[in-house]
Recover the amino acids of this structure.
């Protein structure tokens, strides 16, 4: 028993004619008749008596008609309810982000999204890149905010922000009087660096090693906010992304461009290739794009104070 067979059956019962029902359903009469025969075979009962040019419902046909109408009405209501839920932002959405991006890009993004779609069931996961990609591949996450490159043929990405590295130093030190700092000047000072468990930590290590720097590392930490706090205490200087500097309102640190060896990470939104993004996922992606544009447009004067 299939839905289109029930539709044809109801149309014939209401029209009292196979010919008229076929015209109403925009299908050839032989095709409609064939589907009715298949429906009768699946039920094991005749549904119509053919009385010349007239037809009449059999006992089985009279029993099926209200049930068929109820099924078709339920299907139409389900279709309307699905459209309504989509249009009003109902439904689940699972988003992931790596720890070196989440605190700086997600709060405004999530805030706007939740305000616009209060009925959405939003879940946010913060984890390392490898774990988030595994969740994407298992369809446990709809979107992830990651740092490129992502070398996986089952993952699609859309870049949303270029995020350059900056030098961060204590406000009381001599770096505050500099307009910028070179990597050579960076290596002469004690450093507080992000641990290489993060892809950002690997990027910083690669930048320093590629330039042949001999760093005096006094601390490895797993959190960018800890890097900022230790730098503010005078333990050393470091490299952090621009979005991290943009979120620092303590004014205990100064941030300066890195001269001579510019390095920029690309922040992107990722999803599983071949999996259709939901309506809510597209709305969230729009919010991430908007936040990326806002962060990119921040005046340098608000950061290099």
């Amino acid at each position: 028993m299939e839905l289109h067979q029930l539709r044809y059956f109801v149309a014939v019962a209401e029209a009292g004619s196979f010919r008229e029902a076929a015209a109403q359903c925009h299908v050839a009469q032989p095709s409609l008749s064939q589907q009715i025969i298949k429906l009768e075979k699946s039920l094991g009962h005749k549904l119509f008596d053919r009385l010349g040019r007239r037809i009449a419902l059999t006992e089985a046909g009279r029993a099926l008609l209200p049930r068929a109408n109820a099924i078709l009405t339920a299907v139409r209501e389900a279709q309307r309810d699905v459209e309504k839920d989509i249009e009003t932002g109902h439904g689940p959405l699972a988003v992931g982000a790596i720890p070196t991006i989440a605190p700086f890009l997600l709060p405004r993004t999530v805030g706007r999204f939740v305000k616009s779609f209060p009925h959405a069931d939003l879940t946010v996961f913060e984890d390392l890149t490898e774990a988030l990609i595994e969740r994407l591949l298992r369809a446990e996450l709809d979107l992830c905010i990651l740092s490129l490159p992502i070398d996986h043929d089952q993952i699609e990405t859309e870049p949303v922000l270029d995020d350059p590295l900056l030098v961060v130093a204590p406000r009381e030190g001599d770096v505050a009087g500099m307009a910028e700092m070179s990597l050579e000047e960076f290596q002469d000072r004690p450093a507080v660096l992000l641990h290489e468990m993060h892809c950002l930590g690997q990027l910083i290590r690669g930048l320093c090693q590629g330039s042949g720097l001999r760093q005096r590392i006094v601390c490895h930490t797993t959190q960018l906010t800890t890097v900022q706090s230790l730098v503010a205490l005078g333990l050393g200087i470091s490299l952090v992304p621009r979005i991290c500097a943009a979120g620092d309102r303590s004014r205990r640190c100064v941030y300066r461009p890195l001269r001579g060896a510019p390095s920029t990470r690309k922040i992107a939104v990722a999803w599983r290739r071949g999996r259709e993004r939901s309506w809510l996922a597209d709305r969230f992606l729009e919010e991430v794009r908007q936040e990326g544009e806002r962060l990119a447009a921040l005046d340098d004067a608000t950061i290099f104070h």
User: Anything to note?
Assistant: The mean pLDDT is 89. The two ends are 72 Å apart (CA to CA).
